[in-house]
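The methods section describes the discrete structure representation at length, but only in general terms. Each protein is reduced to its one-letter sequence and a matching series of backbone shape codes. I believe one specimen quoted in the main text would settle the matter. An entry of this sort, consisting of the sequence and the corresponding backbone structure tokens, reads as follows.
***
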Amino acid sequence: MSVGNHVRAFVTPLRKRAVMSLLSHRVRARNPTMDAHPTVIWDYGYRDINALEIGKDVWIGPNVEILVYHRSPSSSVPGRLILGDGSIIALGAEIRAAGGTIRVGKGSGVGQYNVVVAANHQMRPGEARFHTGWDEERCGVDIGENVWTGAGCIILPGTVIGDNSVIAAGSVVRGTIPPGELWGGVPAKRIKSLGPAKSGE
């Protein structure tokens, strides 16, 4: 093994670490009321900082990965992430806002180890699964206000979750969840109504 290979093997991870540190610093500096654990991975294009809209008093737990790319070669739909005031992204969640907008409403919580994906690959016969463009018709995720998605949920592109709803742990969600309902399962189905929201919610 040449000296050049040793140098590259040493320098490349240092460079990546420096870039990740810079991207994290920019988000934290722009959002002083945000409480994000130091292990949060912020993966976004340097020019895409405006594609992140973070409200007041947002809390983001350890080992969360947040990917936001306004432009993508796989889709003409812009990527964007909107986190409402007081929203929570819990331990180990993965948020992938490319090829669509992901919105988490005010006071909502994305549970531990959730995966929230704005766009998915198209499936075309005879084509490699990871080298096709993304579906531009079913894209984006909209999570309303005062919503709780339990641990280990997968929220697929095109999902809309109404205000005051709850998604049971381990569910796979696709489609529209009406306001004020409990859904769960694979795929998620309606379990029961949670009743009207109390005043002030």
About this structure: The mean pLDDT is 91. The longest strand covers residues 65-69. The chain has one domain: 3-193.
